[in-house]
Amino acid sequence: MRKLLLMLTVALGSLWMVFLVLQLDTSLPLDPIHSHSWLEYKDYDFGPESMCNCSAIQQGDREALQEAKLLTITKYFRKTIQIPDEYYINQAQDCRKFKSERKYITFPLSQEEEDFPLAYSIVVHHKVQNFERLLRAIYAPQNIYCVHVDKKSQPSVQAAIESIVSCFPNVFMVSQAVSVVYAGWPRVQADLNCMADLYNSSAKWKYFINLCGQDFPLKTNLEMVRMLRSLKGGNSMETEDMPAGKKWRITTVHEIANGTIKSTGKSKSQPPFNLPIKSGNAYIVVTRGYVRSVLEDTRIQALIEWSKDTYSPDEFLWATIQRIPGVPGSTRPHPKYDQTDVNAIARLVKWWWHEGSQDSAVYPECQGSHVRSICVYGAGDLQWLLENHHLFANKFDIYSDPIPVFCLEKYLRHKALAESEAEDFFWSP
Q1: What was the pLDDT predicted at 40?
Q2: How many other β-carbons are positioned within 10 Å of the β-carbon of residue 46?
Q3: Straight-line distance from the first to the last Cα atom of the chain, in angstroms, rounded to the nearest whole number
């Protein structure tokens, strides 16, 4: 009898423990963050990345920078960093595995970020690995992403990017792709098509940011959200009076032939509504209201039509729209309101003619190489990059020098997780 009572007591005790565990589990918030090991997202050393002493590189340590330079020219390192397009095509067949192995964070890291979604346009024509690492660095489930792949791109590039995009419900291919021409109107049209798709796909996002495949973030998503909130409904981009040396771009008719743009020698008409044409940058940070104006304002529609036969319209169109009265987040066209690319937050670009070792230079010398007068960052640029206030920087190229991207990825991931902990987002018993 005593043995039977003892067995019943043990059984009841076990049932009671099960009940308590169930009660405890149902009291937990249903948050994906609690079903994963945090180290799973923190560990960013996939292979060649582990060879880099990123913390020392970030501090500008000379020995670490020298080692990084030597590393980039070693045959083994260069071989291990190359990821063929077919890898992405094959791996993305199993989306759950792909997102896990590539360590995408698929849940909001804070309520503040979840309540302030962003919209991105990403224009790509090659170098899939650059694109995939950029997407991973800026990915958050509350944001929305439109990807435009140049119609002239290699079939493997198109297939690889489509495969990656298919794994995410909030990432999509643009509804109408174009053949992009350097300095020609199609480059603007690519962003316009994504703008329209993003605007029509969701009414929740607060700001639009356009990127290319060789951009990379300098801030975490939370830092971006807080910086954008501080704009208080304003936009941020380069917008200045048109320099005399660039006025030929808008006073002469240009046409595209055989994939290149050239002048016809004919004079253009004056801009519609006597709008003052400003000089700027192809990359912008603007509100949803600004995008709505681009898509619907009759003045802007006329300006768009007028701009289609100019040279490099992406370097004046957005800047000009920013100075049109009534456009949400805009500023007056008076020179007092001019803003340089250095003061804006949209993009940090190091131009070779502004580089130098003297205090009078705008930037320190490029530690990488140059493409079209723009610095392709090297490891030695990392410390300087992180000292700036911009959201993104251009250019990065994993295929020529991957270390800046490797180290920025690791830095931003660790910082994002530390911010999440600081926000007390974790459940604590």
Answers
A1: 66
A2: 14
A3: 41
In terms of Cα–Cα distance, which of 132, 188, 403 is closest to 314?
188
Give the residue from 422, 350, 424 showing the smallest Cα distance to 388: 350
Instruction: Express each pLDDT in 176-234 by its tens digit.
Output: 999 999 999 999 999 999 999 999 999 999 999 999 999 999 999 999 999 999 999 99
Are residues 288 and 247 located together in one domain of the fold?
A: yes
Distance between CA 323 and CA 346 in Å, rounded? 17
16-29 burial string, b = 16+ CB within 10 Å, else e? eeeeeeeeeeeeee
Q: How far apart are CA 199 and CA 287, in angstroms?
A: 11
Answer whether 332's CB lies under 8 Å from 324's CB: no
One-letter amino acid of 349: V
Helix (H) or strand (E) holding 376: strand 374-376
Task: Say how many domains are in the chain.
Answer: 2
Q: What is the dihedral of CA 72, 68, 413, 139, to 10 degrees?
A: -30
Predicted TM-score (pTM) of this structure: 0.89
CA–CA separation, 407 vs 98, rounded Å?
22
Residue 71 placed within a domain: yes
Could you confirm whether 296 is annotated as catalytic? no
DSSP secondary structure, 287-334, as one string: EHHHHHHHHH-HHHHHHHHHHTTSSSGGGTHHHHHTTSTTSTT---SS
291 and 356 share one domain = no
Q: Residue 127 has what DSSP assignment? A: -
Q: Please pick, among 238, 315, 409, 419, the residue that the annotation labels catalytic.
A: 315
C-alpha distances (whole Å) from 364 to each of 40, 41, 54 are 37, 34, 20
Both 371 and 307 in one domain: the answer is no
| Domain extent for 72 | 32-82+346-423
pLDDT at site 37: 52
The CA radius of gyration of the chain, in Å to the nearest whole number, is 25
With respect to residue 368, please indicate whether it lies within any of the assigned structural domains: yes
Residue 280 resides in a domain: yes
Q: What share of the chain is helix, strand, coil (3-state, %, to 5)?
A: 45, 15, 40
Give 197's contacts (C-beta < 8 A, 6+ positions apart). 146, 172, 174, 175
Distance, C-alpha 296 to centroid of its chain = 26
